[in-house]
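Example record

The entry below shows one chain as it appears in the dataset: sequence first, then C-alpha cells.
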Amino acid sequence: MCGKGFSERGSLTGHHRIHTNEKPFLVIYAINIFLSNSNLNVHLNSYKRKAFSCDVCGKGFSERGSLIGHHRIHTNEKPFSCDICHKHFSSNSNLNVHLRTHTKEKPFSCDVCGKGFSQRASLTQHYRIHTNEKPFSCDVCGKAFSVRGNLTNHHRIHTNEKPFSCDICHKNFSQKIHLNVHLRTHTNEKPFSCDACGKVFSKRANLTRHHRIHTNEKPFSCDICHKHFSWKSNLNVHLRTHTKEKPFSCDVCGKGFSERGSLTGHHRIHTNEKPFSCDICHKHFSWNSNLNVHLRTHTKEKLFSCDVCGKGFSGRGSLTQHYCIHANEKPFSCDICGKAFSVRGNLTNHQRIHTNEKPFSCDICHKDFSRKTNLNVHLRTHSNENLNSGDVEKDFL
C-alpha cells in the first residue's frame, strides 16, 4: 500500500491495520478497540497500579518503557535521529510521526470533513471542533480547552512560567512555538511565502493576514458601526474610537494615544529622530508611511483619486482630507475654543495657539516655531534664499 519496510512480519501485520482500520483486540468493560495486542496490554495496565516511578519528579508509570522515555525529559537525551534532516527525538514514536512531514503521509482522516492527519492524536483533537468538546479546564480561572497542550500553555499565564529559553540572547518564552518564531529573528529565516506576490514571512499568521490584501477579505466586524477589518488588531484599535480609550501615554508631555505605534512615532517629535531615509534625495522622515508618501513625489504616482472631482493624491490621508471640502465637513474641533477643522493637522497646529507650544527648533540660532513649514522658511534666512511674503504660514486663529 505505502511501501514502508519492516524488519519483522508482526510489525508489518500491525502496520496494515492503519490502512484497514482493523482493531481486533477488544476490552469488554471499557469498550475500547486496539490495533495490536501490545496496545491492549498497555491499556489494561492503565487500570493497574503504577509500579514504576521517576526518581527525579516522582511521576508513576505502569510500564518500565514509559518510565525510560519519561527520564529523557530530565536528561534531554534524544537517541532517535531522522535520516533526512538529522533532527533528533527522545522517542521512536515521535521520530515516526516526524518522518511523515517528509513523506506527506496522512493515514488518519476525519470521517466528518475528510481532513487528513499524520497523527491519530491530532485527529482526536480535531474531532472536538465538530463536537465542540472542551474536556480540559483551568483550575484557576475555569477556562476550557479542547487540547491538553493548550491548557498547559494557558496555565503559564497564571504562573508566569517561561521554560523555553533562546540560546543566543537568553530571552525566555512560555511556549516552544514562540521560541521557534523568535529564533528566526536571529537567522532571518522566512519560511512562509505568498503564492500571489512572492512576499515572505517568518510567521504563518502574518502570511495569512497578508493574503487578505489579495482577497480583500475582512472577517472582523465592529459590533457598533459594522465596519469590517482584515486584521483583529485593527478592529481592536478601531473600537477605541468608540470608547475613546487611549491606553498609551507619552512620558514627556502626557499626550494619550489609542495605538502603541502612534506613541512610538510621537516620541520622535521630542527626540527629533528620523530613522527613515529617501534613497533618492536622502531626506529623512520620522514615519515609514511618510517616507512612502514622499517617494511618490519622485515617481509622480497618485494612487488615490477623488470620485467627485477626479483630483489625484499620493496619500490616502490627503484624499480623506480633500473629501471634507466637498462635504463641508469639519470633524475636528478644538476642545478649548470650539473652532472646527476639516483636517486633524490643522487642529493640531491651532491648539498650539492655546498651549504656546513650539516644538520645531532651528539648529543654527535655536529659534522655536509652532509649525514645521515656518521653520523650513526660517532656515532660508540662514542660506540667503529669497523669500516670498506668502511663504510663512499663519497659525490658525
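Notes for this example: The radius of gyration is 32 Å. Residues 276-380 form a domain with the Double Stranded RNA Binding Domain fold (CATH 3.30.160.60).
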